[in-house]
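If you are new to this repository, start here. Below is one unmodified record pulled from the training split, so you can see the exact layout before writing a loader.
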Amino acid sequence: MFKGSCHCGNIKWETATLPGWLTRCTCSFCRKSAASWGHVDFENTTIFYDEHAVVRYVHGDRTLAFVSCGKCGCTTHWESLDPQATQRMKLNFVTSDFEWPDDIPSRLFDGADTWQYLDE
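And here is the target side for that same chain:
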């Protein structure tokens, strides 16, 4: 099991498998939060937190919420808000409790303009 958390430990996450790659996004939120997103299987991932101590930030097309700790401010993951879409989420692997293996590639996603991976 791979684990991570915000700085103060209010939000904790566990996932059974590592993602195939980590995504760095060029949208204004991801750039400013220095996130490194990993798509994880919703069914094999658990997130623990005090509901009263998290902040959900919804912006733009309002299809996802960035979830941050209301105490220390770390953004740990995002959640899908689209009820028609399959459940999906990405964890911010910068908040992991482990050094991820060097063989997980990092990809750059143009979330500011084209909505395409720039390495394709």
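Two things worth knowing about this chain: The CA atoms of residues 109 and 117 lie 4 Å apart. Helices lie at 28-33.
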